[in-house]
Design goal:
Number of strands: 7
Number of helices: 1
Helix content: 10-25%
Order of helices and strands: EEEEEEEH
Strand order of the largest sheet: 4-3-7
Strand content: 25-35%
Number of domains: 1
Distance between the termini: 32 Å
Length: 86
């Protein structure tokens, strides 16, 4: 378990996966509705926009998509917004 500083200086306690292709999850904040990128193994995350604490009981909880890199996540988020899916 390691403390990781995310976007906006928000810290999260996460377990860093050693292998596997899908290391990141895209989630939607329950407070402000903004899309967030978190490590797939994170147990909780603090929204960098509204500071709401998001409890992720399992890696699959509330995940919109799983991606292998932050760059792929950016492309996925842009596509979700372009299509108006969420």
């Amino acid at each position: 378990m390691r403390k990781v500083i995310g976007p906006g200086g928000v810290s999260s306690n996460v377990t860093i996966p050693r292998s596997g292709k899908k290391k990141y999850a895209i989630i939607k904040c329950a407070g402000c509705g903004r899309l967030q990128l978190v490590l797939a193994t994170a147990k909780s995350h603090t929204c960098s926009y509204c500071n709401k604490r998001i409890n992720l009981k399992s890696p699959m909880s509330g995940a919109i998509s799983f991606v292998s890199s932050p760059r792929e996540a950016l492309r996925t988020i842009m596509e979700i917004k372009r299509r108006g899916i969420l």
